[in-house]
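FAQ: What does a ligand-bound record look like?

Like this one, built around 1,6-di-O-phosphono-alpha-D-glucopyranose:
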Amino acid sequence: MQIKTITTKPFADQRPGTSGLRKKVTVFQEPHYLENFVQATFNALGGVEGQQIAVGGDGRFHNLEALQIIIRLAAANGIKKIMVGLSGILSTPAASCIIRKYRLDGAFILSASHNPGGPEGDFGIKFNTANGGPAPEKITEKIYQESLGLTSYRTIDHPDIELDQIAVFTLGDLQVEVFDPVSDYAELMAEIFDFDLIGGLLRKPDFSFRFDAMHAVTGPYAEEIFVKRLGAPADSLLNCTPKADFGGGHPDPNLKYAAKLVAVMFAAKAPAFGAASDGDGDRNMILGDNFFVNPSDSVAIIAANAHLIKGYKTGLKGLARSMPTSCALDAVAKDLGIDCFETPTGWKFFGNLLDAGRLSICGEESFGTSSDHVREKDGLWAVLCWLNLMAAKKMSVKDIVNEHWQKFGRNFYSRHDYEEIDSEIAHGIVDNLRRRLKSLQGGILGSLKITRADDFSYLDPVDGALTQNQGLRIIFKNRSRIIIRLSGTGTSGATLRLYFEKIEKNPRKMNQDPQTALRQLIELAEILTGIKKLTGRTQPTVIT
Ligand code: G16
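The answer part, i.e. the structure of the complex:
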C-alpha cells in the first residue's frame, strides 16, 4: 500500500463551532477541504498511529463520499482499526456508546445535526475523544491551529470499500470493520430501562404513541427498540427510512419543523405520547395528547423522577444544564440535595463533570437530554425515559408535567430565533448590548429591577479551563431572565437566539400560554436590543 503525500493549502474557516465544523455541502465538496480537516485533527492529536477509531454519519448527502475519504486518510496515517457503521450510518449517541464499549481512541461523526440536507444543504464533521464525548475546546482549538498551517495530507489510492454489509476488510495495516451499531445501542438501553415495564405499556390495546424519525438516523434504532424488542405496533413509527435529503424535510424536532407529528398530536383524537428525533439522533421532542413538553421542563422532570428508572434507582450524583436552559432543573437539584452545574451551550462542556463522576443527568433547552450512560445527548434515551415514567406512574404526559409544576412551580420558558440575519447586524446588536451591561446592572427596566447584567463565563471545576463570552444575561430580582447569544451551529449569515424565563408559583396562573406569560420580557428585550427595528424582521423565524 503506497502512501501518498498530497500538497494542499490551508483553509481559513475550519474553526469548529458549538458542535464541530458545519458548512454547506458545496464547501465540503471543494477539493482537499475535508482531507485538510481530517489531517489537521490527526495532527492535533499528536498522530494516530496504532489507534482504533469509529466513523459514521447521519446518512445525509455526501456522507458516503466523506466516509471513503476518511478511511483512506486513516490508512495512510497508520490507524490500526476503523469501525464503520453499516451503510455508513451511525447515530451520535450510538457513536459515543461504541467508543466507550470497545475502548476506542475516538470517532468521527459526520452530521450537521438538525440542519437540512441534500446537495444545497449542510454537512458537518466532529471528532469525539476516548471518553465518547465531543472533543473539548482545547482540542478543537488545536485542530483549528493545525488547519491554518497545513501544507500537506497523507492518503492512499484505494477503491471505495463496500459498506452495505457486515464485513472486515484490510487496507495494508488498517482493518476496516463494517458493523451494526444498532444492537450495541439497544443493549445499552436494555441495561438502563425495564423493557418489561415499558413494553407492557406499549402493547396495551388502549395506548398509542408515535415516534417520528424524520427520515434521519434513528429509524433503524427505533424499529429495533420499539417494535422488535418492546413489541409496539409497527405503525407507531413514522418516517423511519434514513434518506440523504431527509425526505425534503428539516430534521429538527421542534414545533415548526416536526409539523406533521405536531398535527397528529394536537388532533381531536390524539395518541397518548409523541416524540421525534433529529438528523443524528441526539435531540428529542416530547409531546403528550395535545401537549408540548418544553425541553427545560423535560430534563427537570426526568431528574425528579429518575428513581423510577432502573438505571438510576441508586440515586443521582449531580445535575447540569447549559446557561440558557431554564432553572427548573436547579429546583430539582435543591430538592434532591445535589449539585446543579451551569455550563456554556455545547454538550462538550458536560464531559469533564461526567467523567469526574459529579454528574448523572444533564440537558439543554435545545432539545437535548442525556445522562452518564454516554457522553452525548441521546434522543431515544429521553423518549424511553418518558415512556418509563408514564408506565411507572400510570399517568399521562400532561398530568406528569402538571404534578411537577405544582410541586416546584412553573418556569415559563421560550426561545425566539432570528435565523440567517446579516452577520454584521447580528454582531452589532450583541456588541452594543455587551457595552451597556455595566450601566444596566442594578437599574430598573420596565417595572423590573436588574440584579445582574453580564456576559456568561465558565470556569470548569474539573480542569480549571476558563471559557468566556458565552451569552449576555439580564437577570431580574424576581429571577426572570433574558438571555441573548449568537448560535454556533448555523451555516449562513448569523442566528440570534433570545431566551426568556419567568418563574410562576401561583397554581392558578400555571396554564397560561408561555408567549402571554412572557410578554413583558419579550417587549423589554426589543427595547434592549432593537432586533426587529435593526433587522427589519417582524417576528422570529422559530419560536419554541
Ligand atoms: C449542538 C450542541 C448543543 C447546542 C446546540 C445549539 O447541538 O451539541 O450543545 O445546544 O448545538 O447550539 P447553538 O445555540 O450554538 O446553535 P446539535 O444537536 O446541533 O449537535
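Follow-up question: can I read anything off the structure? Yes, for example: The pocket of 1,6-di-O-phosphono-alpha-D-glucopyranose is lined by residues 18-19, 113-114, 278, 282-283, 345-347, 364, 366, 368, 487-489, 497 (CB under 6 Å).
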